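Checklist before submission:
- one chain only
- standard amino acids only
- sequence pasted in full

Submission:
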Amino acid sequence: MRYLSALALLSVLALPAAAYADTFNFTANGSGGGFSGSGVLTATNDGGGEYTITGISGTYIDSLVMPAGFNGNDNLLFPTSATTVDNKGFAFTATEGNTDFTIDIFSSGVGAYDAYFVDSDGDVATVPVTLTVVNTTSVVPEPSSLLLLGTGIAAAAGFVRRKLPA
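Returned file contents:
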């Protein structure tokens, strides 16, 4: 019985506080300059409806720019708010053909967004965009959850075994 109690305690201690990141599909379509893009944002929940974007992927997208690395970006996401990103937005690099871009998508007012970009040809522009962000995270059991389930099953089997006549 002591071993089962110790095993149950170890299982509970093995549970991580936050073992996954949320993912969000995003699309940004410009109403000028032919800007459009889509991809997946990976973000960690900071609480209170605020997320920090930690990764980005998509067609032509190279990498996320660290906070304050381009146009004052802070890489914060507010998916349940009327304004999905703040006035600092999130920034990333992209390559299309032989042109490299650095892009910052930010809020220019409640529900309004702009994309500020600089390309390797020296062109600079700010174009209004429509930004859509959808949370696509699905709950997946973590290894520690499976460990806890397994120890529970083992404990139940041990109790049943003790109750059976020899």
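Reviewer check: Residues 2-15+142-163 form one domain.
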